[in-house]
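Translate sequence into structure tokens.
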Amino acid sequence: MGWCWGMRIGTRSIFAKLLCTSGTEVGFVELIQELAGKRLADVPQAKTFIDLAMAYELDRARHNWREPRINGLQADILGRSFKVPAKLAWDNVGIALHTGIGFGSRYPEQTERLWKNEHEYSLSDEQWHAAKTRGVIRADEVMEKDMTLAEKQVELVARVEAFVSNYHPEFLSALRASLGRSPIDNETLD
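Result follows.
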């Protein structure tokens, strides 16, 4: 979402209101962009978003288990056997979401490069099967091949507009204006 809207001045306040508790909006976009900057500084050689996320998760696991010498195999074993409490999982997803939005808005060129490395190639049947077996991809998930960031943007904009239309209709006109939609477009999407 950060890449889609580039955190234009007109949409910053809308996204802050949508993504955080009332009264905490001031400085929100800057905070999530700072989180993204820290992630990138920690893993400057990242080729995909998964590289960024996994480096953070490994560091978090080391910290949580207070074991600075945990290796990849140990982390893999812990990852399969340790169950994350639901609240912690929810909090982690929120942090990942906010960091991703901050990353896309602060580093649009890097976002495009990481997206291309991660999504704009075809998985072989063997890679697809391995991802399903390891639980990275749901067993019933349909394979999306070669989806460009621009194609994903169309889908994402539609989802954000649907969410805003249902839950925060007071922001819909400003959101659409930030996308350069005409009044006719606005009427047909309501």
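Note: The chain is about 70% helix and 0% strand.
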